Amino acid sequence: MRMTGDLDWLEGGVTAVPGFLASGVAAGIKPSGKKDLALIHSASPARSAAVFTTNQVKGAPVLVSMEHARTGALQAIVASSGCSNVCTGERGIRDAREMVKQTAELLRQSSAESGFPTAHRPQ
Question: What is the pTM of this model?
Fold first, then answer.
């Protein structure tokens, strides 16, 4: 599938959309102390679509996100930066699912409505 046409950029970012909240923190992933963990939350489940790497080696958060993306609806996204989370094996899968679970509990929603894609940009 190929998109055609121009993209309309939204002034004000993701939180300009009614019902969306976003925040970022320095969680200690980056040694620099810069912000490295973000949360985007929708007041209600939102339609979702995702594009994932075609690399044969996918990090645990990517694999777990692929599971959640199949539903076509998400209410939260957690994105990390500064650590690729690749080659972590079964422990990485457990950790990614635990992150989804804890995020869902914090937001008082179903784990099925939380996603955990990574936005890996080492800086």
Answer: 0.78
